[in-house]
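Journal club prep — side note

Before the paper discussion, L.F. wants everyone to see what a predicted structure for a comparable chain looks like in token form. Sequence:
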Amino acid sequence: MAELELSIAYKTLPARVGVTVMGALLPVWGLVVPFCLGLFLSLVMRMPQSLPPVLTALVLLILMLIPVLSVVVTAICEDDQILISKEGLSFPLILLPKLAFRRERLWTDLMAASVRWSSTRSFQGSDCLSLYFRSGGRANLALKGIAKTDLEQLLLAVEVWGGNCKREPLLIEFQNTLQNENKGLEHLSYTQMWEEELRRRFNSTSFVPLEPGRLLQSGRLRIVRQLAFGGLSAIYLAQSNEQRLVVVKEAVVPSNADQESRCKASELFAREAQLLIRLQHAQIAQVLDHFVEDGRNYLVLEYIDGQDLRQLVKQHGAQPEALVLQWTGEMAGILAYLHGQHPPIIHRDLTPDNLVLREDGSLVLIDFGAANEFVGTATGTLVGKQAYIAPEQFRGKAVTQSDLYALGCTLYFLLTGADPEALSVSEPRERASQVSEEINGLVAQCTSLEAKGRPESAEQVKAAVQAIVSTRVASLEPSLSGG
């Protein structure tokens, strides 16, 4: 998605109880009461003079109100979505009393935000996020009622769109903690986090990432927050023209690099950026722009809303083999498109972190190795995540089969829930015995230490997946026909 438009489930205990109770009572208020109302009306019509007028009116009122109120209560309890757009928010009906009976609020009306929380590991009943509005009213959102990934998106929306909202320091701390936990970083000690931060930001360079609020391209781009950063590159979430969200990827050549290396790297970056801008594929984040500013090179990419595969596996564990097969076909199709360009585009960084699952279930590749290649050429440094890099890529000689090695490593992670061992042949059955021999063999072949031992192309991987699926379908047909 180019813009942040979300629908977040908000499931509170009172609402769940209300839906359950009203569902159980449906035969009463949906059938019995209307039937009684019909009988009573017929009685009134037959004997209008024999019934007391006041009592008759009271009984009729009660019998009519019960179904109406039941429908209203059910609708309130079933309305469990918080809708977010660039204009504002729309809250569930159950929050109306606290919101002064105005469920739709503009971002310009959001005055302040605060949070009460004890631990992100397990939210308590009293933990809540409070949003205060200038025109009156507030939304008290129980943290237990929102999935952690959705909560992270909501807080990000408040940060991006609620420009005049005062966010308490505790809320900012909570947002950072939640983001780290969702990315799998919550087990780092404070010392480790501090050392990692120093190593990432200032490792033998003077490179310092851009701070939130920094403007680029004469104000057309505003940095919202850092998403990731390494020794000489960084990735940011940014806002373009105060409307759409984009991802900005930054690369820097160190000042101590010689002029020839700097020119060569800049030329490579510009050439590969132009190649990427021309790509048009439904499952590849669109590269929108490339520019140079203050000696730094930038790529601007489409922002894709969804959950990356690392977060998914972290929350739900190893994935079913049938689903992994489906994703493998999609990943192979994406790589086949990239490798089929002239010249072929080698991604160099295919990992679970760079594959986002959209709400419709399709995968999208969200990052490219252009900036990484740019930095590696200038500095001679290694680019990529160690456990997913093919041996020849370590030696600085990436080929199209290097992406297939990363694909095999990604399959290993999806099937086992663990990163593979670096520079080794990966066999998921060694860790997860339920993995079939066919899939185990495909992963082992893709992660062969020699490029010539891997499939020749991504198309070949896709064909192998289709053959496995076809064999399984064929084996099921006799039993289905016999049933």
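L.F.'s comment for the group: The chain has 14 helices and 17 strands. Keep this in mind when we get to the figures.
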